[in-house]
Structures are given as structure tokens and as C-alpha cells.
């Protein structure tokens, strides 16, 4: 999906539906689209800030203005890449609200994204597991464990409205990067299937537009990953390849700055195929089994 023309609504508080508002952070990039979207969910009596985003003074000021006099009862994160969770700690100090959501991942990721290595300062007050929930007057936000993009990734279902906040797991503008060692392709595909079995009315991702054809998009994403897997197997049936040779063959025309991220997803596919005994490797060389 092409980037929309500027100006983007950075810093503006936009109402999406009753009890759901959105504030866009000023961290747009080829990996974050127009930026991280922080969601304010709930009412004046009890509000949750979901994915508070980067620790950026401008964004924190916009969140504070959007919160106004509302009582923040929780600051919630889908996962702990640096474009999602660093604002949780300062916002917690400002509002007195606990950080409740995904667990911490203490891993220095080798993912080649300036905005995405893990937030090693993230310290949740409470970790939510699959099916755990937060609630306030008229709303219930239930955690849906969706590992794959990261091992700690959660989506959140607003049960009263049928909305699902999908973080980086499902987005309309791009597929999610799955970067080992923490990202896992088998987990990612299982999590996609988990969402396909649901009947959510609308997805609100952390980056990019809302998604109304939810199951159709997920079905397409599963098909896309299976197509990439078949592409890898066809290449290796022809001859053994190194990862660095496979990526430009698989992603013809992709911008050079995005090729390292694509390589991470190919690596995740190879590791999954290796576990399933479909491929083997010798040093840096991969071959069909």
C-alpha cells in the first residue's frame, strides 16, 4: 500500500467509534507507515491507553491532551518493540496508572529496523495471559495471545463492540516482519489461524488504516505466507542457496533498504521448514531435504 499524502493527522485525537479514540505518533517511516497509532479505550471514568508508542515529548503531550480529565486505569502494550512501549513508563508516572499487558522480552534483536528492537526498559506491573481482561464502565478489553511477530505479542478484543486491536500482527498496508530469534513463523501462522477462527467486526492495527474485511485479509495473509514458503522450496529444489542469495530472487523490485527486513522473514520461513525436516543446512547453505 502506498504511503498516503501528507499532512498526516499526527498528534490529533480522532474518534473512531464510541469509547475508541486514536492519536498518531510522529514516527512515520517505511516500517511504521504514517506512525504508531495509540488508542484511548473507555470512558472518562475509566480509560485505557493502548500502545502508548515511542517516548517522544510531542506524542506524550498529545496523549495527555487527549486524556484530559479522564481517569487512566491502565496503560497497555501489544508488544515491546521500541515504537510501541517506551512511552508506557513516563505516561504511568504522569497518570499514576499501572502498566498492564504483554510480558517483557529481554532480547537484543538482530532485526534490521532502527525503530523496532526491543524496549529493554519495559517493566509491566501486571502481565496479561490469553483470555485475561481489563474492564471499566461499559467496556471489557480481553487479551488474545498472538505470538509470532514477537513472542510476547497480544491483540486486544473490545468485547462490547466487536473491535480487535491487532498491534503489528495484522495490518492492511504491509505484512508483519517475523524476525528470529524471537519472531517465529510457525507461531505467526498459528496466530493468524486463531484470528481467522474469530468473527471480529473490525481490526484497529498499530499502523495503517482500520480493516473491515477481517477474515478476508487474514485468509490472504495466510495464503501469502504459504506462497513464500513454496517459493523457497522451489528455489532450493533447483539448487542449494544461501539466504543472502535467495532474498533478491524472492523480492524483485523491493527497495534496498527493506531487503534486510525481508531477509529476516525468509530466515524465519527457513527455520520453520528446517524444524519440519523439509530443508537442511550446512553452514550458510540451505538445500531441500
Description:
By secondary structure, the protein is α+β, with helices and mostly antiparallel strands. It folds into two domains: 13-214, Metallo-beta-lactamase, Chain A (4-Layer Sandwich), CATH 3.60.15; 224-288, Arc Repressor Mutant, subunit A (Orthogonal Bundle). 28% of the residues lie in helices and 22% in strands. The chain has six helices and 15 strands. The chain has helices spanning 57-67, 88-95, 185-196, 214-238, 243-250, 259-275; strands at 13-17, 20-24, 37-42, 47-50, 72-76, 100-101, 126-127, 133-136, 139-145, 154-158, 163-167, 202-205, 241-242, 279-282, 285-288. The protein has a five-stranded mixed β-sheet, with helices on one face. A hairpin with a 2-residue loop joins strand 8 (133-136) and strand 9. Helix 3 packs antiparallel against helix 4 (214-238). The protein is elongated and about 65 Å long.
Write the topology of this structure:
Elements (H helix, E strand, L loop, with lengths): L12 E5 L2 E5 L12 E6 L4 E4 L6 H11 L4 E5 L11 H8 L4 E2 L24 E2 L5 E4 L2 E7 L8 E5 L4 E5 L17 H12 L5 E4 L8 H25 L2 E2 H8 L8 H17 L3 E4 L2 E4 L1
Parallel strand pairs: 4-5, 6-7, 11-12
Antiparallel strand pairs: 1-2, 2-3, 3-4, 8-9, 9-10, 10-11, 13-15, 14-15
Helix pairs in contact: 3-4, 5-6
Amino acid at each position: 500500500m502506498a504511503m498516503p499524502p501528507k499532512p498526516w493527522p499526527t498528534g490529533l485525537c480522532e474518534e473512531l467509534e464510541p469509547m475508541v479514540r486514536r492519536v498518531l505518533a510522529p514516527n512515520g517511516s517505511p516500517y511504521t507507515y504514517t506512525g504508531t497509532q495509540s488508542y484511548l479505550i473507555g470512558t472518562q471514568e475509566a480509560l485505557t491507553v493502548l500502545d502508548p508508542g515511542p517516548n517522544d515529548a510531542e506524542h506524550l503531550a498529545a496523549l495527555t491532551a487527549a486524556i484530559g480529565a479522564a481517569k487512566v486505569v491502565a496503560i497497555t502494550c501489544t508488544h515491546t518493540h521500541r515504537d510501541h512501549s517506551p512511552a508506557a513508563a513516563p505516561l504511568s508516572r504522569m497518570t499514576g496508572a499501572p502498566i498492564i499487558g504483554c510480558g517483557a522480552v529481554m532480547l537484543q534483536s538482530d532485526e534490521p529496523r532502527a525503530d523496532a528492537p526491543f524496549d529493554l526498559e519495559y517493566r509491566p506491573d501486571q502481565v496479561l495471559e490469553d483470555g485475561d481482561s481489563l474492564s471499566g464502565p461499559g467496556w471489557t478489553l480481553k487479551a488474545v495471545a498472538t505470538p509470532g511477530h514477537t513472542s510476547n505479542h497480544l491483540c486486544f478484543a473490545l468485547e462490547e463492540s466487536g473491535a480487535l486491536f491487532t498491534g503489528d500482527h495484522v495490518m492492511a498496508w504491509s505484512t508483519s516482519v517475523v524476525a528470529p530469534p524471537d519472531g517465529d513463523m510457525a507461531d505467526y501462522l498459528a496466530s493468524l489461524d486463531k484470528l481467522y477462527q474469530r468473527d471480529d467486526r473490525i481490526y484497529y492495527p498499530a499502523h495503517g488504516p482500520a480493516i473491515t474485511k477481517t477474515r478476508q485479509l487474514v485468509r490472504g495473509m495466510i495464503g501469502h505466507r504459504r506462497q513464500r514458503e513454496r517459493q523457497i522450496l522451489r528455489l532450493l529444489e533447483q539448487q542449494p542457496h544461501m539466504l543472502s542469495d535467495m532474498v533478491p530472487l524472492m523480492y524483485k523490485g523491493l527497495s534496498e533498504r527493506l531487503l534486510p527486513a525481508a531477509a529476516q522473514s525468509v530466515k524465519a520461513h527457513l527455520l520453520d521448514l528446517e524444524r519440519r525436516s523439509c530443508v537442511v543446512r550446512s553452514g550458510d547453505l540451505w538445500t531441500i531435504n
